[in-house]
TrEMBL record:
InterPro entries xrefs: DUF6589
Record protein name field: DUF6589 domain-containing protein
Pfam families referenced in this protein's UniProt entry, alphabetically: DUF6589
Taxonomy, superkingdom: Eukaryota
Domain DUF6589: 162-420
Region annotation Disordered: where it falls in the sequence: 314-338
Amino acid sequence: MLLKTLLYRNCSATQCYEAVCINKSSLKKLDALADRKDSTVEGTLNGTFKIVLDNIDLRITTRDMTCDRQNKDIHWVNHNAVKNRVTPGNNKRVQLDLSLLDYCQLLPSAADHEKLRKDFTHLVSRVLVEHLPCMQFLQTVCLQHIPHQYSNEMAQKSEKVFFKRHYSSISDADKGSLFADRNLINRRNVTSDVHSNWANCKAFALLEIKARIIAAAMVILGMENINEQPKHLPVSFDMRNGTDQQKKKYLNNISGKIVDQFVLDEHSLNDFVNNVLSEQEQEDIVNNQNLTVDGRFPCRSQGCDKSFKYDGKRRRDHELTHDPPPVIPEKPVISPDYPKEVNSTSDADDVFNYNCSVLNQGLLFMDFLDATSEGDGERSIRCWKFFLLHFKEEKSTTKYSLEALYLLFQVYSLLPPDEAHSLVWNRTSTTKVAQGKMLL
């Protein structure tokens, strides 16, 4: 049952109208609903649900204005009670206090990077089989719904009781830029203010991302136009008539090459992951030192009973007075030149770098949209870890970075385990029984 409450207030807030309505308003349907109300109420009481509020703001301007007839501001609030489809079950996860939380959990890990690459590969493969004629024979093996542990639950009907960085209006003369493409195809409904026309801006962004995926695929396959057959990695007769497993391997191979060459720098990514693991191992060695009974740091020279409150300079200076001094493991320090800045030389291909950047962040955007449509809470949180870094880097979106940080704090520390689990897996709803139809 969908229960809606509409609250209307005029601009002076002197009158208030409240109304309650239900979708099935005919008398016969209401009678049928009454027969099922006991099971509906019982099912709701046995589970958990969330209250969803949605504001609708309107402004009515008066043509003939008088003292009594002024412009009106109308604010409607729609209330929905949505039953959670995913329950924590036997959730034995223990939430740490914020002071004890390892903040590395809030940042993308090596495993997150590997999973992101895998997600990008699936997204790229969908674009290839949809837009390249030579790849359409692989449609049957292309993964249209990335599975997760609650795929079946998210396919059920819900019961209800980055744009400024690459889009600039001064780049109309720069071929290949988003604004130049917008003018080329006459998308006048795309504006710099995304909030004013979200749907059209989103459609344009997805079109730009897919176009760059196709362009990258043509480079990998050695094609001059989309109707040609690949010169590199050609499609043989045996491949066209091969098994689904062979076709899937071929498609993933091409998609992976696109991701590795144009989206994720494989060598830089491997170096980054190795550095993170090495620094984490060193930090674990330092943090896992033996402390005294009263929680102080002992001198690491054998036979010395002196201890210190902090693992700081005084402790190290004292240890150096011993002959010979103890071997002290160095604390991991991130190199001052990391992250390495790209050298702006005359040989740098700014157009290539720009389009690779659009492709990189565009695929992250597509991955987040796909995770939302599939109700994949784990993948959404993984995307939020990457968004946190992008929001922090972009000076105009620092408040978004704080919101992303607060969301991750809730998931990993602030909320009780069951509520944290619900926050991850019950952020979407749908009115259809199908996969890939979720809405926030």
